[in-house]
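seq as requested:
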Amino acid sequence: MDILTEIIEVSDEIITTLKEENFFVETPFINELELKREIQKQMQYNWEQTESMYLNDEQFLQIVNDLIADGISNGLSDLIESGHVQAGVNQDGEIVYSLTGKPLEL
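struct tokens:
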């Protein structure tokens, strides 16, 4: 078996385990496919650098944290663009957000 096939199989196992543990329910800002893709990229990088594809805890947590930050940022941007949230700057120069009262369509 070549390394790319092994990376795909191991990343599939990781995603399956995370699904079984309700990871994607508990972390709604993480897209399953994006997480799998980022895990595979990191595994490929690890293989090229150390000839071991496996992630350590720090690498996995960094991927998760980056995806959460991106998901929240994109979600907030979508809410601002749709008119549900309004952004402004307060007296201290900090960016602040408030709801506009526009009803959300669920």
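The chain has one domain: 3-99.
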